Amino acid sequence: MDGETLRVGQIFVAGGLPTVTYNPRSELNLEDQIQDYLDEGYRILSVSGPTKTGKTVLVRRIVSPSEGIWLSGGAIQTTDQFWDSIADHLGLYTAIEHTSDSKDEAWRTISGQATIGVTKGGVDKKEIVATTRSEKVSRARNVATQVRETLRGAMTPLIIDDFHYIPQAVQLEIVRSLKDLVFDGLRVIVIAVPHRAYDVVRVEREMTGRVQQVNIGFWSPADLSGIARKGFAALNVSDKDELLIARLAEESFASPHLMQDFCLQLCKANGYRSTQDRPRELLAPDWDSFFSARASMASKSAFDLLARGPRQRTDRKERELKSGTVTDIYGAVLAAIANTGPRTELTYEEIRSALKDVLSSDLPQRHEVTRILEEMTKIATNEIEGEPVVDYDVALGKLYISDPYFAFFLRWGVPGLS
Questions:
Q1: What is the pTM for the complete model shown?
Q2: In CATH, 26-91+146-215 is 3.40.50.300
């Protein structure tokens, strides 16, 4: 793309498939691992990574939508939807129609007179009278059966994005129905958040040893900085000492999605919306205003729903924070999470310790805190669109902030929270 004039939105792509600023993180051999799986098969490949860390982008670089069957777990709530989605993608017709025709013929004689010259005579004319009967019989084929036959024959890779969105009972049915196809060589890739990456094994113990794991992990500051360098070079702008790049990487919560967005907004704040005709230097904005503006657009509605709790109540005990803010237990727990940085993975003990740091009043009991974490998870799952911003795993006793945008909001979006 040397010499090509590009718009800044083509260079820094937040939420789509970047080209100029795509960073394969070659040192991790992620692309090679996925390609090796496609070459070898006979297992299910689970690609895991935190939300907005490039899982889908990575897999799409190897298997485009034209080369594989891509399904969204968020659109699958039943096994019928699963099979129907694949049938639609493959353009399968699930009804067979047989038509049979029969024809009866009879001769009919028509009498009349004709004049030939001056001679008159009688004329008999015969014609065929036909009756046609048509019968149609249709039979619906089982969708799952037809899809399985087609998958077994074509061996087109099947990719299920956001596998963790699918109800666990449905996950079980899907995994069981795919086992023999995987054994026959069908490539199946599921994409999930890290703590749900082994849902495939959880729902079907027989798949233990038949699931290959690729964890793309969090992005390092160096990986994130690579995005900025590539993009700034394409835009013909520079960050002299890379102090701006370092600050953006620090605030990105290891997310390339956030880094792309920050770089995009920084360039626009400097007035650079397309490739410059000569080298230009980027200037630092007012960071507090810059980041607060990004936070206000990110996760405020999600925060408000979590802070409100499962329903509006006026009888919750007031909790005073050391910052002087008066809230209830929901606000206190959110303040404690924010006080950790926030960290994106927390145990109950770490949350309790953070509660000690932010509260000037008595600490809530253990059962109160765990109940709040479970309620927040329900709200995040059922009332907030997209990836659940928080997810408390009862079995593991851990709280995950699944969305880096929400973590960023806790840091920048609520003054006096902690």
A1: 0.79
A2: yes
